[in-house]
Amino acid sequence: MTAEFAVALPAIALVLAACLASVQLVAQQVRLTDAAADAARALGRGESAGEAGAIADRVAGGAELSAANDGQFVCATLTASGAGVLAVIELRAESCAVTGGR
Asked: What is the number of other CB atoms lying within 10 angstroms of the CB of residue 30?
């Protein structure tokens, strides 16, 4: 093994770790978006915020739900922190549904 390879190996490992952490963060954002849509549909059907939060928690796990209702639409906003190395990044997803959508 040459000295150049020994110097470059930690940099390669760091780039690989950053790439894997980024993929994990994107996957968590997709789960959060799906959970926001599920929670908005539940709120639109007239279910309570607790039930919608339980649905969102089942899909995204550990996200904070806030809901807003303007009469015609109900919107669910989920926020969560990233996981692992990128835990300092805050993720946010919002979705709206028509109220009374039974």
From this structure: 12
**No. of helices (H) and no. of strands (E), the chain:** 2, 3
How far apart, in whole angstroms, are the C-alpha atoms of residue 102 and residue 91?
30
| β-strands 73-81, 64-69 pairing | antiparallel
For 86, the enclosing helix (H) or strand (E) is: none
**Once rounded to an integer, what is the mean pLDDT over residues 11-38?**
92
Mean pLDDT of the chain: 89
Q: Are 52 and 42 in contact (CB under 8 A)?
A: yes
Write out pLDDT tens, residues 78-101.
Answer: 999 887 778 889 999 999 999 875
